[in-house]
Structure formats: C-alpha cells, structure tokens
Amino acid sequence: ERFALALQALRAGLATSILLHDADVFFRRGGLLAMAQQIASLPAGTDFAVSDNGPRRNETFDDLNWGIAWISGSSTSRRFLECVLAEWDHPSFAPPRGFERHFYFARSQPRLNHVLEAAISAGRGPPAVCTFPRHKQDAAMRHMTNLRTAHAKLICARAEGVSHAPRRPSAATLWPPRASACTLAYAPPENATISEQKHAFRAALAVRAERGCILALPTVRYQGRLVPFCKVFDPTAVPLGSVDSP
C-alpha cells in the first residue's frame, strides 16, 4: 500500500513531503517541474493537495482523486494517514454480500475521502486539503484514469506522445551484430475517411511485422479535424511491443 510506504518514509525522516501518483499518470516534458512549482505555491498550512475529480460525481465520496497526491509531512497529515491505515480493515468498510464489486468497497479513493469528510465534519484540527488547478495539472501530466486495462493506457499514452516504447539496443551493442531496428511512419491524407485510415493502419501493421520495425502511431482526423487515436481505434487490439509515439 503506497500510503503506508509514504507514512513510513515520513516517519523515518527519509522525506519531508511526498508526491504520490498512480502508475497510469504520465508526466509531459517539464511536467514534474511544473507540479513542483504548483506545490511550492500552495497556501501555508496545506496538508494535502490532490486532484479534483471533475464535474459532480454520481458516486458518494468520489469528488477528490488521489491518483496524484501531495502529502506535506505535517503532523496533521501523518495523523490522518495513521487513522486511515489503522481502520483500513474495519468491518464497516467490508462489503455486504452482493456488493463486493461496488466502487466504494473495490477502490481505496472513496475510503480516503470518507474518512477525510468525517474529519472535516468533526472540526477538531481537520486536514487542510487543496486541489491542483485543473488547467495547470493537465498541462503538466496526463492521467489515463478512464481506461480499464494497462495495455489500453499504454497505447493511448503513446498515441498522445506522453509515453514512449522502451528503447531498443543499438546495433553496436548487439551480438551477433545485426541491423538496427527501424521505425515505420506514415501520414494519412487529411481528407481520408475513418474507414480508409483504419485500412491504412492495418496495412502499416502488416508491413511493420514483415520488416521487424516499430510503427509510429499515426495522427487521426475526422471531418478534417484532429481527434485522439483512441477515440477511433481500439487500443486493446494494437500490439504493445509494435508501436511507439508519433
């Protein structure tokens, strides 16, 4: 549990504050520095800074997103984590029969928010929580939070240019020596239909496989306008080891 490790690091003096993020958070170029600048500008006395989960949620205790969270290391922040972790397996958090997959019981985020709201309601030295400004956060990072599988998250992150395939060894480091891996790229005509773009992509994957290349994911257009790759293509059908960012 990452929050337990964060608390352990704070207790041991290994860090004065900690920035945690989910594995599906991808920082843009210079994004980590931008987040550090946002943290430095937080009001004095802030115990936590987290993401705003967007428009009002239908689910209870889901308005704050802990997928990226800054923990100040203050005594209040440590006490809050201690409380949450101590009660993590409390029977009140156990799902009733038939509700094992309900979002509240299946995820850690509602539990954190529930305890936080209870602490604020109690009014006895509650944690001070801020949210990162949405426009600044989006400029610094991309959180692939609405995709179900790690495969889809990685493909879509590569398509958006916020993640890259692992670097292949160069020809000079391989034994026996062989030609270095190639990268195949193409640009569909701006007036190509979605059907034509899908046909071109299938053909490019076939050529890539034949030549042993990495395929640079193409830009996608709909009615002359750029649209996200994953709005048109099924990312789960794209071989992960075969493609890279544009």
UniProtKB/TrEMBL annotation:
Could you identify this protein by its name?
A: Nucleotide-diphospho-sugar transferase domain-containing protein
